[in-house]
Amino acid sequence: MLLRSTGLHGVFVGAHAVAEGWLTRRQLREGPYVRVLHGVYADPSLPRDHLLRCRATSLLMPEGAALGGRSAAALLGGPAPSYGDPVTVVLPPPLKWTGPRGVRVHRTDLGGREVVRLSEDLPITSPLRTAWDLAVLETLPTAVGVLDAMLRHGLLGESQLTGLLAGSAGRWGRQRVRRALDLVDVRSESPPESWVRVACALGGLPAPVPQFDVVDDGTWLARVDLAWPEARVVVEYEGEHHFDGLQIARDDVRLGRLVAAGWTVVRLSAADLRSMDDVVRRIGEALGVVPRSD
Predict the structure, then answer these.
(1) Nearest-angstrom CA–CA distance, 159 and 35
(2) Residue-number span of the structural domain to which 28 is assigned
(3) Measuring CA to CA, which residue among 240, 226, 215, 243 is closest to residue 283?
(4) Residue 244 pLDDT > 60
């Protein structure tokens, strides 16, 4: 594994390895190394995840730039994008760099206090700066999902987010940040829950209560992902773990108790989330509310 000054934890720039004689071009081309980005390779034993792409990007980006947005959030401990999603780099003036394919460059001011370094010496934006860039750069559902997770994991405090807009009058992206912060909820326990909440808000449906404990005549029935208690409607998102045989049986019994008690249960899977319009329509029908169409 190449670990010298050429690389970072098994990730290296191919041209440097060849120039310093560690590898020949043929070995680089035909060897077992994984091409992560244009010109950057990794030891094949390393997990092919977003962190690997961030390491590769850090070897190319100029001094003064920082990993930001979803990439920074993932490195701080938030939900990670998939391996194929672009790495976000914040590039302050007067630096000029376009980055290879697979890297998204966001050109904007970046204060020295807005950059921190992790144990792997990767420069990333601070949690608060990361929150701002998430809201500015990402779609509303994605931004809220990541921000919810950052709050839940203690990477940010609610008071910090509340103060994020202070002194930002006239700053580009402020309205997008305000819109995202209005929808953030620390109680949300997964990005899919957050996405459904945002879809409901955009569709004009009443706001649900995340992680609601359903109690009927003093008897606790279940904790559900999202609930509209007054309408006695709940939404349950069933991730991959649900399809374990034993888990299916447990969930069926748990949700059966809700139905027997007069609650309407809307069950969602990952496939359902491919069409949020349909999700909002189903929830609207359960609530007796016609969603807003834009």
Answers:
(1) 42
(2) 7-46
(3) 226
(4) no
Position 1 in a domain: no
Q: Is residue 199 part of a domain?
A: no
Distance (Å, whole) CA 31 – CA 18: 13
Q: Is residue 294 part of a domain?
A: no
Residues 217, 169 share a domain: no
Distance CA 98, CA 67 (A): 14
What would the pLDDT profile of 187-202 be if each residue is shown by its tens digit? 999 999 999 999 999 9
Residue 50's CB is within 10 A of a number of other CB atoms, namely 21
**pLDDT of 228 above 50:** yes
Same domain, 94 and 175: yes
CA distance 62 to 91: 9
227: β partners = 209, 234
Among 143, 237, 139, 260, residue whose Cα is nearest residue 190: 237
Cα dihedral 109, 113, 118, 122 in deg (nearest 10): 30
Angle between helix 276-287 and 191-202 (nearest 10) = 70
For the chain, give the number of residues: 294
CATH number of domain containing 271: 3.40.960.10
pTM strictly above 0.90: no
